[in-house]
Amino acid sequence: MGALPLSDEDEPFNPATLLAHDPDFPEHAVVPPIYQSSLFTFASHAEMRAAFAGEAAHPFYSRVGNPTVAVFEEKIARLEGAEAAKGFASGMGAISASVLACCGAGDRLVAVRNIYPDAYRMFGLLLPRLGIRVDYVDGGDLAGVARALDGARAFYLESPASWVFDCLDVPALAGLARAAGVTTILDNSWATPIFQQPCRHGIDLVLHSASKYISGHSDTVAGVVAGRRDLVERIAREVHPFLGAKLAPFEAWLLIRGLRTLPLRMARHQASALALAERLAGHPAVRRVLHPGRGAAGAALGGWSGLFSFVVDESVSIPDFCDALALFKLGVSWGGHESLALPAAMALLQQQGPNSVRDFAVPERLIRLSIGLEDVEDLWRDLENALAHHG
Ligand SMILES: *Cc1c(COP(=O)(O)O)cnc(C)c1O
Asked: From the CB of 91, is ligand 1 less than 6 Å away?
């Protein structure tokens, strides 16, 4: 399979064209074949020797690499303006492998607050067992970040932040980390590479839960990390094969299909979510709308996806609101065709014990919405009707 047709140096960044084009597949198929094969054989001892010596790019076992997965990885690398990418079985697979490739016993990881809750739980439960210390910082306090980065190994960011959607000054934070010799890892699932390409702003590793917008159809759990070639290769060599969270060829094929419409879908998610955020902000029972398009713009953010939150006043019974929704389903995850609602009190605030994320600065009466691809007027009628169900 040849290289993808657009080259970063020579061509302007054009995701729609990049995603519609492919290398030349066998038989000139326009869609990549699903290499549903656990292993790949060698024609000769010499070919096998060259592959094992790393002299020839020949797939040999699908836990380590697979040609369908490689097509997906190449597309993500190009979209992110990154040197390389590695697919994973989930976003958490990408997060754990990235952190473990950068940090070991005795190292310190600095993280911004309000990251994805399972990343937060992993940092609290698993990393201390491995001798990795985690310090949280306010990503808006550049002086505080600079102090925390002194002597740290890695800096973990998510922008906009989970649940509250505060935007970070990604170029400034990347610059501070670079000056301190600290590796940066940024969760870009919310913005997707359509609206934010953090590597172009100095971030070393960018990762995604591809289960969200990249898949776009709520039919896949997958992840990917992209960034500096030396770091992606370290992940691929030292962590990915051993933790075993490999991306499966069929999942990669679904992701490649999802990517074809990513620019179109993101434009629709953006427009519908902005319209609904505006109308919610004008509703008498809504105290606050947390949507990055309504606050200070992120320095690296070129658009807004379809996930945001709002806070209702005491006149609204949150259980009654949830039960009155007809189009919005109640559920976790986001980024698919279907609109979803999730109350923070359910997802974050009621949990006790080691899995609790009670340190999150999330208002108690907050409801998160993932705006899908339905007609925006139908969605507004559903929200308006449910808000009228006062407790
Ligand atoms: C869902 C999610 C993840 C984890 O991804 P999985 O594919 O569920 O493992 C990571 N980061 C963010 C922001 C997410 O929403």
From this structure: yes
Ligand 1 closest atom vs CA 162: 13
Answer whether 192 contacts ligand 1 (Cβ < 6 A): no
AA letter at 61:
Y
pTM higher than 0.85 = yes
Give yes or no: 150 in active site. no
Q: How far apart are CA 92 and CA 126, in angstroms?
A: 13
Q: What span, in angstroms and rounded, lies between the C-alpha atoms of 316 and 365?
A: 9
Helix 117-125 and helix 91-102, axial crossing angle in degrees, nearest 10: 40
The rounded Å distance from CA 118 to ligand 1 centre is 8
Q: What is the pLDDT of residue 298?
A: 61
Ligand 1 close to Cβ of residue 218 (< 6 A): no
Options 86, 113, 212, 265, the catalytic residue:
212
Question: What does the pLDDT look like over 255-271, one tens digit per residue?
Answer: 999 999 999 999 999 99
Q: Which protein residue's CA is at the shortest distance from atom 1 of ligand 1?
A: 209
DSSP β-bridge partners for residue 84 = 227
Report pLDDT digits (tens) over 303-325.
999 999 999 999 999 999 999 99
**Catalytic residue check, 63:** yes
Calpha distance 189→210 (Å, rounded): 7
Tell me if residue 268 is catalytic: no
Is residue 212 among the annotated active site residues? yes
Q: Three-state SS for 110?
A: strand
Gap between the Cα atoms of 192 and 175, Å rounded: 21
Of 269, 277, 265, 271, nearest to 367 by C-alpha is 277
Our answer on whether the CB atom of 212 is closer than 6 Å to any ligand 1 atom is yes
| Ligand 1 lined by 370 (C-beta under 6 Å) | no
Please list the alpha-helical segments (H only) found in 131-228.
142-149, 170-180, 192-195
* Tokens 């592959």, residue located: 51
| 48-53 CB contacts, 8 Å cutoff, 24+ apart | none
Residue 2 confidence class, pLDDT cut points 50, 70, 90 = very low
Instruction: Give yes or no for a cis peptide into 160 (omega within 30° of 0).
Output: yes
**Domains with residue ranges and CATH for the chain:** 13-260 (3.40.640.10), 262-389 (3.90.1150.10)
